Amino acid sequence: MNRLSGETSPYLRQHLDNPVDWYPWGPEAFAAAVERDRPLLLSVGYSSCHWCHVMAHESFEDPETAAVMNRLFVNVKVDREERPDVDAVYMDSVQAMTGRGGWPMTVFLTPDGRPFFGGTYYPDKPRGQMASFRQVMAAVDDAWRNRRSDVHAQADQLVSLIDRTPRAVESLQDGSEDGSAPSCDQMLDSAGDAILAGFDPQWGGFGGAPKFPAAMTLTAALRIHHRSRRHELLRVARTSLDAMAAGGIYDHLGGGFSRYSVDHRWLVPHFEKMLYDNALLTRAYLHAWMVTGEPQYRQVLDETVEYVLRDLRHPDGGFYSAEDADSEGVEGKFYVWSLTELQDTIGEAAGAEAAEQAAAWWGVSAAGNFEGANILHRPVRGDLTRSEQLQAARAALFARRRRRVRPGLDDKVLTEWNALMLSALAEAAAATGDSSWRAAALANGEFLTDNLRRSDGRWLRSWQAGTSNHPAQARHLAYAQDYAALIDAFTRLGELSGQARWTTEARAAADGLLELFWDDDAPGVFTTGEDAEQLVTRPKDLMDNATPSAQSSAACGLLRLAALTGEARYDDHARRIVETFAASAVKHPTAFGRALEAVDLASGGVTEIVVVGDRADLVAAAQTRYTPDAVLAWGEPYESPLWRDRAEGFAYVCRDFACLAPVSTPEDLIAQLAG
User: Fold this and answer.
1) Is 593 in contact with 198 (CB distance < 8 Å)?
2) Measured between alpha carbons, how far is 6 from 12 in angstroms, rounded to an integer?
3) pTM over 0.90
4) Closest alpha carbon to 592 in 187, 93, 315
5) 22 — pLDDT class (breaks 50, 70, 90)
């Protein structure tokens, strides 16, 4: 019996027809393990994961392998995107055992949930030094039946290792040797040095293959450059953003970015497209455009937002999670081209000359650059401006591609990832004045408050549209990263719209975060709320990874909200978080990219801008200037010291508990912000 039929997760639904007797995570699975005296086999993945599909095809769809699984174990499927708490706890155990992690993740647990063995992908047949999945299962079963005491000892040791939050927090709290607190400039200079040390000067980014976009670190580099005028940090951002936009990791026809590049040159992507990557990269290219004025960054910004709004948006305003790497069972098939197909497609629409020009522009050849086919890329970096002829060629290729079988869509709506996209979209709409983006941002805010919050105010993690058999529903208690991302999203939506209700929503999210997740013993927030299921440990993410950690996201959001509202306790909690990771963030910026923003805000201070009355020109002057340390209040007043004793028709700029003289012209406001 497959028990996944009642699940809403697209990933879990992918396994509905497996011969494996899957359980969803929950008490029924643990009760079955106790009753049968069998370990649990926990399999964790996500819908757009290529190697998850490979293992599913090789093992979970195979009746003989499934029979072994059903006989020896209680089998549990988890969508890591719906349950990041479960994923985090058991990923820690896999990394402790093997020194690495990834998905699919396979972990064997005692009936009370303690891990004792695990890994990632296991092949269906022995491969090199890798045992087959069946060999692994046989060895685990043998240990369970014949060396039970060793299994329990291993489980106890692993739980002790992964229950490491106090030790991890202590390791982050590494202050200066003489006990003095470094200045903001000193800390950011040190962070800038560390960014430069890890930078690839030829291809941009950090490290070798596989290479991830590191959008938060690039955003931090732009921020430090703005404060210190270190032009080498602007070069870090520009080289990286240019190379990514020219590479195959960027979709030159439909916009948007794939998750990472399998090579160091950004040419061959892992073709899955994630909402969170595109949210974070939207922000990076927006800031690069605001800093430099370069039209190519605006082009990438426009095309990335267009991709999200076109292909990842629910009709009511929510954003879907991801698109798969595979279509028709082949990785990248939707995206690649043969030279002949490209020439025929463009030739029919724009002529042979246009086809020849397009092939050269996007580096297309008869030999190809990916398994005999071509991933479109720009051989010349730093030049994305297309001629009218190339635009016609792009339109023809895009129209032809739309007739192909699309990659699978993960259509669940996740609170955190939506909030990340909402933050980026609201900031971009304000900076560009794009009214359609403004409408999309407001629609997303309404979608989240209407669909992902219970009537008692408790936020939930994941929403799924209804089917003929199941109504639309939101599931799983939201995590600290959901609440933290909402604080930032709602403050930025308030800054975009001038509507006071979004600041009120941000305050409610902040209050919920501090009430449900705050750790009094080691300053910061736990991943799970005090009302959530108790796992073998209570996880607490500390470093930024593919998405911002709950700590850095909370610190940034609380600091900005404190400046907007004058609420001292938000500022106090944020500073306690920053004190925990500041030293480590400065030394290891690629692991603390978003945290560096919090360090800047906490140590350098927040600039408060208030525009009183109907002065759209003053609002635009504040919104269109790159001022990363500023917050903006305008439109409908709300409870805050910022609004007290302010005359209409003026803008006020305040910092460090002092305000400059009120100004009434955009030129004077810009001069104050520049000063």
Assistant:
1) no
2) 10
3) yes
4) 187
5) very high
